[in-house]
Amino acid sequence: MKNLNKLFALLAVVAISFSCVEDDDFAIPDLNEVVVEAPAGTANLTTIINQYENTFGGQDPEPITFDATDGFVEGYVVSSDEGGNYFKELVIQNAPENPTVGVNVQADLSPLFTRFNFGRKVYIKLDGLTLGESNGVYTLGIGEDLERIFASEVLNTILRDEETAAIVPKEVTLNEVNESLENQWVRVSNVQFLDSELGKTFATERGDTFDGDRLIQTCEDFFATPLVFQTSTFADFKSIRVPEGSGSIDGLILRDFRDEFFVLKANAPSNFDFDPTTRCEFDVVACGTANGPGANSLINENFNGGVNNTATMPAGWTNYVQAGTVEWESYFDGDRNSPATRATTFRSGDESSIAWLITPQIDFDAQTGEVLNFFTSNDFADASTLEVLFSNDWDGTPAGVETATWSALADATVVPNSEFFRNFVSSGNISLDCVDGTGAIAFKYTGNDVDGGTANGGYQLDDVTITSN
Predict the structure, then answer these.
(1) Which domains does the chain have, with CATH numbers?
(2) 354, 384, 351: which is closest to 455 by C-alpha?
């Protein structure tokens, strides 16, 4: 009986000891490192990525499964699940500085950072693993579904080298984010969260089911497409408010769950270097929005008077080509069953296309309560852009377009690239009540038809109105 009591006491001590450990309360073990020689047959990540991409001679690749003859692949850890922003996944890149490729390794073990800390050099045993794409990025896992490596096999599959390298983030601008940066540690500088995101937490707002998506913008270009900063709703810092000010963010370039857009994902709040007192300064016109249009019509253009596939030239408007051959031209939109105008570089061959469509000038001192409204759509705009600008020092001539001062209308909504191409999106009721003098509104299209057509999309415009009280 005494022996049985001793056994119960021992079990109680063991149970209490384990119950005191929080799920994420781990430290990297302070162990004497065992020098690991690079296993025979170790390859760079680029080798297996190229093998995958060329499985069908440059056509859409299919997952490839490795065997014992394929050896190992090496890389450096650039993700960390210490803060809960990653779960049972390890992202590695092929070099600690200036990487060219990275891969997501699925591993059914948590936490991983206690052994595979940030910067740790690792060797992945390829035998039995499959390389493919999951959520739009290169992924190593089990089977064609790229499932997680069994917990019992993780430490046999992922070998830890004694080296922990200093990871140097790759300096990129927001506009440079593309698929060649996926699964790599970058520093996006000169950015800030949009005004509409300030005051929000990283991932505890209504609608943050699995992740919190917050938009960041570059300070270099007001019209540049924002990038999504994504945080898991299981992250330790999910309840912290996004930082004000502006600066740089270190993180991984990934894709969202449905592979619809790029996201930037950090390991911890320490990956932010923001000056809280400084926000980006843009040369913009921001009068806010109005409840609705005014009673008096100053401009009401539906582009019904144009001839298909010819330059759009309503009375008093200016159609100006700054670069290339593309101009705004009239067409019939079957989805709206109505004429409209459009600009696109598709099949133009232009190295650079800049096309302006400018309203007649209006004396904004002659009335009050001016409100602008218009509708836009796009067809695979990609990197092409449509800017909505205002100037009150333009002389009204084509020759004066490029020398005038043009400021962005900050409150105008232009159709996002993600919108279904048949849909026209309202700009909203944009107040112009804070501007003065004689001015005009310009719709400036920019694109090109080079480098595989990354910016040869088009924008459509219809129903431009300016009203007043």
Answers:
(1) 35-164 (2.40.50), 170-275 (2.40.50.140), 285-468 (2.60.120.200)
(2) 384
